[in-house]
Automatic annotation (TrEMBL):
GO molecular function list: translation elongation factor activity
Domain of life (superkingdom): Archaea
Chain positions covered by the region annotation Disordered: 90-111
Keyword Chaperone on entry: no
Protein's UniProt keywords contain ATP-binding: no
Lineage, top ranks: Archaea, Thermoproteota, Thermoprotei, Sulfolobales, Sulfolobaceae
Transmembrane segments: none
Pfam families assigned to the protein according to its UniProt record, in alphabetical order: Zn_ribbon_Elf1
Amino acid composition bias (Basic and acidic residues), ranges on this chain: 90-103
Xref: InterPro entries: Elf1 (IPR007808), T_Elf1_sf (IPR038567)
SUPFAM superfamilies according to UniProt: Zinc beta-ribbon
Protein name (database record): Transcription elongation factor
Length: 111
């Protein structure tokens, strides 16, 4: 009897799907995502969106561009002020609605 059994751990090398997120030039967070939409065989539209501050814009790029290329183009145009920035959604939170002035009534009951 006996016999050491070494437990073998199977190493599964799953290719991690890298989220292609980039730094937002406006809010500084790494939350820019790029999505493509085919336009024709030579060009496509890239939709650039920031999941943090809601920045959103579209630009036309050659169809061979990948996300990083599109992002580079976006940064160039953004810095030159040539981009039309749209806001994504209307998640403007109205804060500062504090209810003040409700004085607590001091009612001391003496038996
Ligand atoms: Zn942002």
């Amino acid at each position: 009897m006996g016999g050491k059994r070494k437990k073998r751990t199977k190493i599964v090398r799953a290719k991690p799907k890298l989220p292609k997120t980039f730094e937002c030039p406006r809010c500084g967070k790494i939350s820019i995502t790029v999505e493509f939409e085919d336009k024709d065989s030579r060009s496509k539209m890239a939709e650039i969106r920031c999941g943090s501050c809601g920045l959103k814009t579209e630009l036309e790029i050659p169809s061979i561009y990948d996300e990083a290329n599109a992002y580079g183009r976006f940064i160039d145009l953004y810095l030159e002020g040539k981009l039309e920035i749209k806001e994504d959604g209307e998640h403007i939170v109205n804060e500062g609605n504090e209810d003040e002035g409700k004085g607590s009534e001091l009612s001391s009951e003496t038996n």
